Amino acid sequence: MDNNTRKLLNLTDESLVFEENWLSREARHHRSVNMISGRLVEPNKQCPQCGFTECVENGTYQTISQLPEVERRPTYLKLKRERYLCKNCGSTFSATTSLVDDYCQLSKQLKYQIAFDLKENRARKEIAEFHHVSENTVQRVLMSFTNSCQPNYHSLPTALSVDEFSSTSSCHAGMSFICADAQSKKIIDILPDRRLSVLVVYFMKYSRKARLKVKFLVMDMNASYGQLLKTVFPNAEIVTDRFHIIQHINRSFNLLRIKEMNQLKRHDPIEAKQYRRLKRYWRLLLKDSSDLNYKRFYSLKLI
Asked: Are residues 7 and 95 in the same domain?
């Protein structure tokens, strides 16, 4: 394998040794796959236990790792890994590569591709079928990247924004909780439960200094979140999100409009005309006053 092919397949690790006939087509899991065969050696042969450098070869064993597909065909890397015996401490170790994690059959590059697909609005089953892996594998990749993003329990923003959103059925009442920095819009954490008892236990994990730093708690009109001020954020003030204020005004206005419509008599010509106007021009009634155009337009129907 030449150097350009190594770069194309992301097999630039110097520990990998490939012979002339390194590519073959094999049947695996009832489908034809690309099989790249090679050998994995340890250039330094240094014992990880005692640091002794004079280690001898102690046999080989075979591993098969899945790579990103090539030409819409699943691709695997079959390696003969060399084992070594330390003459100083008697321990054994194997040759390692940066392409694949220890005790894992998926390459790091394939995990990154699955993680990028998880960022899109796609089902896990669809992603699993596209990369020729199981749904449990996609779930494990998701959890591995999620666990690496743990919140900092010693820092909280000055303005903390909290809200709830519709989630999966595995969450309590199908709702999840989200908190974010109101200024930078950066998400701090997402919880699978929105109940007050769970939120108090979660925020109490943060240091007292971090909780006292919160000056504003930006939220909707949910009264339960306001009880967090008594036990968790004593220095904070409640700030109602303007989005929810406008949303509440629009809903109340629509209810009033529908109530007035139902009181009109549609068999009366004058009241029927008022009924049609209230029903047809509801978008115009909710439109921002700065966007209104006071010019009158007539719509002509061509028969």
From this structure: yes
The closest of 154, 226, 150 to 189, measured between CA atoms, is: 150
> Looking at per-residue confidence, does 190 or 294 come out higher?
190
Q: What is the DSSP string of 5-42?
A: HHHHHT---TTEE--SS-EEEEEETTEEEEEEEEEE--
Return the structure tokens found at 286.
Answer: 């909710």
The per-residue pLDDT for range 42-75, each reduced to its tens digit, is 888 888 888 888 788 888 999 999 999 888 889 9
Alpha carbons 182 and 202: distance in angstroms, whole number = 19
Residues 81 and 24 in one domain: yes
What gap in Å lies between CA 59 and CA 89, rounded to an integer? Answer: 18
Q: Provide the domain limits for residue 137.
A: 115-147
Structural domains counted in the chain = 4
Q: What are the tens digits of pLDDT across the range 48-57? A: 888 888 788 8
Question: How many Cβ atoms from other residues are within 10 Å of residue 112's Cβ?
Answer: 13
pTM value > 0.85: no
Please answer whether residues 66 and 75 qualify as being in contact, where contact means their C-beta atoms are separated by less than 8 angstroms. yes
Q: Hey, which residues does 70 pair with through a beta bridge?
A: 73
